[in-house]
Design brief:
Helix content is about 70%, strand content about 10%. It has about 100 residues and is mainly alpha-helical. A hairpin with a 4-residue loop joins strand 1 and strand 2. Helix 2 packs antiparallel against helix 3 and helix 4 packs across helix 5. The chain starts with 5 loop residues before the first helix and ends with a helix.
Length: about 100
């Protein structure tokens, strides 16, 4: 794997956790901020041989596309709360989403 300073990786992880996929993430290889989709696609490109070897590339790509299209679960839960205004509605949403 490409080498990156521990502090840099921690800062990139913090930024990803704090701002999610709706903001720029830190590309630890390029050492700069970039659109989240670009950073995620770079990671997938890097691990592509392993994903192909296990037959998981299509599943991973489909999952990534779904998250970028629909948003993360946390973002969707915040949207439900903003619209409905109650945690009961958020819990109902979670149950509905996970009972498929």
């Amino acid at each position: 794997a490409p080498r990156a300073r521990h502090e840099f990786v921690r800062a990139a992880a913090w930024r990803a956790a704090r701002y999610g996929l709706g903001a720029e993430l830190i590309d630890v290889v390029a050492k700069q901020a970039a659109p989240a989709r670009e950073v995620v696609n770079g990671l997938v490109a890097y691990i592509r041989p392993a994903l192909q070897a296990t037959g998981d590339l299509d599943v991973v790509r489909a999952g990534i596309d779904r998250v970028f299209e629909r948003g993360t679960g946390a973002a969707r839960q915040r949207d439900v709360f903003a619209e409905a205004g109650t945690m009961t509605d958020v819990v109902d949403f979670i149950v509905e989403e996970t009972s498929v």
